[in-house]
Design goal:
Strand content: 15-25%
Number of domains: 2
Oligomer: single chain
Number of strands: 26
CATH architecture of the largest domain: 3-Layer(bba) Sandwich
Structural class: alpha/beta
Distance between the termini: 35 Å
Number of helices: 12
Length: 429
């Protein structure tokens, strides 16, 4: 039971937005309940480094109860939402439990959108959860293991080919990290294959990679990837993802590892509350982040279709979700305690970044830009700062330092069945 009486604020999702909102309401006059299907907060921007064996899962995840342990008015429930009754003001969990609320905050994030091709999902792994990262790491490393003893040249070539679909930050960062894994960390580990022969193909339907960045930064990233041996196929939409590879028009690229990063779709939160949503499933919100059809329900982060002062939809970035969560939490606190109206949310752009590889990153701050070594340093500082605990910051910094000096990846354990994703060891790898 909550230890503080008052208005009941129910927050669904412990990502950047939900966690920031809860922390802003901590030890205040509201009774807060935070629901998430996991018992930890995950730092998604570094998830690709778990998939490429640079970091261990524990480096980028922190138990929610540890983060909020000092907030006596916040209860944490590990559960999955099945539906919302907006008239009765209660949320129903998959377990059958019902939780009442006075105010509901939806911060349920997003999932990859396969554009109506449900059969592609198992063949082309996305990267949104720790399970995704562990499966992808297992698939990558298992492909090298299989190639080591494969006698059929065609099959060995397929095993030594990785296709990444989507030239946004996820695809670019994954391509660079996989290239460095093959060309540095794994060199010398195998006797019958040369890991530097790994073929990495980045496929983008648009005319260039990193389309959300200025053209000069996108061009720089492309050059750096090509120096790492990554093949970039821009203007080449995927027609099919099959058991043996990817079909681009009449061309079929045989590959045993396919990674999806081409599009995202919001969670089903709009369906739960019967709210108006955009084509990506994001709930249309007012400037104060309240849902247009429900003034006591709010949506933030990837769940929300929120526009800036110029009418542009804010992107699904961690900094957007975190700022929205902090803003909404403080605004709700003032309204509950003093009756103040909710102010409009104003986004402050602190830079859009993508790391391309060792000593190379691009950052767009709007008015000025960084690239190369200084961009890479800035990217590292920002990401370490955004980690939620001192333990995570120290662990990641030390891992990065070790990786930089030795060129070795420290988390190269195959702990999952790459075909089913079933865990074979505890999540300590």
């Amino acid at each position: 039971m909550s230890r503080v009486a008052g208005e009941k604020v129910l927050i669904v999702g412990a990502g950047f937005g939900g966690l920031a909102c809860a922390k802003a309401l901590g030890n205040r006059g509201a009774s807060v309940t935070l629901i998430d299907c996991n018992n930890y907060h995950l730092f998604v921007p570094l998830l690709y480094q778990v998939a490429t064996a640079d970091l261990s899962p524990a480096n980028i995840a922190e138990p929610i109860r540890r983060i909020l342990g000092r907030c006596r008015n916040i209860d944490v429930i590990m559960g999955e939402v099945a539906g919302v009754d907006t008239a009765a003001r209660h949320v129903t969990l998959r377990s059958g439990a019902q939780l009442s609320y006075d105010r509901l905050v939806l911060a349920t994030g997003s999932a990859y959108d396969y554009f109506g091709h449900a059969d592609w999902q198992e063949r082309a792994l996305g990267l949104k959860t720790l399970r995704d990262a562990r499966r992808l790491r297992a698939r990558l490393l298992t492909a090298f293991e299989a190639a080591e003893w494969e006698t059929d040249p065609m099959e060995r070539r397929a095993l030594m080919t990785v296709v990444l679909v989507g030239g946004g930050p996820t695809g670019v960062e994954m391509a660079g990290a996989i290239a460095e894994l093959a060309r540095h960390a794994l060199v010398g580990d195998f006797h019958h294959i040369n890991t530097r022969d790994l073929r990495i193909i980045l496929v983008e339907a648009g005319e260039r990679i990193l389309s959300g960045f200025p053209p000069d930064l996108g061009a720089y990233a492309a050059r750096r990837l090509e120096r790492l041996g990554v093949e970039i196929l821009a203007g080449r939409p995927v027609d099919a993802i099959e058991d043996d590879g990817v079909r681009l028009g009449r061309e079929v690229i045989r590959a045993r590892t396919i990674i999806w990063g081409a599009g995202v779709r919001a969670s089903r939160a709009a369906e739960w509350v019967g709210a108006e949503a955009d084509r990506q499933g994001r709930i249309l919100v007012n400037p104060d982040l309240s849902v247009r059809s429900h003034r006591n329900i709010y949506a933030i982060g990837d769940t929300a279709h929120c526009e800036d002062e110029r009418g542009r939809v804010l992107p699904g970035l961690a900094q957007v979700a975190k700022q929205q969560g902090e803003h909404l939490g403080k605004a709700l606190r003032r309204q509950i305690e003093r009756g103040d109206p909710l102010p409009a949310f104003r986004f402050r752009n602190r830079g859009n970044a993508a790391v391309v590889g060792r000593n190379a990153a691009v950052i767009d701050f709007g008015r000025f830009r960084l690239k190369g070594f200084f961009g890479w340093l800035a990217w590292g500082v920002v990401h370490v700062y955004m980690l939620v605990s001192v333990r995570n910051r120290l662990a990641v910094s030390l891992q990065w330092l070790w990786r930089y000096v030795t060129l070795q990846a420290s988390a190269r354990l195959i702990a999952d069945d790459p075909s089913t994703g079933s865990s074979t060891t505890p999540d300590r790898s």
